[in-house]
Amino acid sequence: MLDKADVNIDEVIEEYNLAGHIEELDEVGLTVVPQSTLKLNDNWFEQLRDAILRVGEARTGIKFDLDKGPSGPLPGRPSEIGHIILQHMIYEDQVFEKVLTHPVKKVLMTHMLGQDHRLAVSDAWIKWQTPDTWNQEETTGFHVDQNVVPAPWNPNKPHIANMNWCLTNYAREDGALAYVPGSHHEKRFPELGEALPRAVPVEAAAGSLVMFQGGLWHGSYRKTTPGLRVTMLGQHCRPYMLPFQDFKGRIPLEVFEKSQDPEYLRSLVRENETMLKVRPKDDSHVF
Ligand SMILES: [Fe+2]
Predict the structure, then answer these.
(1) What's the CA-to-centroid distance between 253 and ligand 1, angstroms?
(2) CATH superfamily, region 33-268
């Protein structure tokens, strides 16, 4: 069922031909929107990818080469598992705002989470060849993104939904997202070992947008190819939840001024929340 609260939704669905993707989100729990549907050119994605690699280098002191991988070892967990997650990307570059306000993303997210959904995280993910010492088939174990809410969940009204912008080609051997189609209908967490035999990889070319809902069982496969998998991701949540990262009051005014959809951006980062009204003096029966 389509959430029609936003009057512009129907127009965007028609303009971008999204009806099939909405159906897929309902039935399968995940959809891959190709670059041609997004109407974005290669340069748009290259800017995003290069900004992520630049931030990765600035924060770690390690160079990330698309074909060769990281220039040296990273301390701790990243070297054990072969990936690093860079948080709070929205503060780094306007390009990270563009992934939030693209009309296709907005409409599909609104379909899953309704009006007034919030940005919960603004993360980039750089993954390289999984070290031989990592002895599991998955590098991210199977889980659901809305695990902070006790099951059972309504499969038609997820609490959380996610977006993955694929900035490099994306297949099983490249360490793609693994997911169990339709698993959101089970309304529960997967048991240990239950999801992997039923999982399939997301196959997507660089320039695709993967969207999926928070009750879907997913993880990711080990990466057996050299070079990098680069992804921009972002969980969103319904307005009754606290975002995992708090952006309210922290994003400079100029980011809103340069945004293609400043009102939606304000809503995403909770700038549209009104102050609670002061209780009237004669309201003495309320304690
Ligand atoms: Fe996840």
Answers:
(1) 31
(2) q2cbj1_9rhob like domain (2.60.120.620)
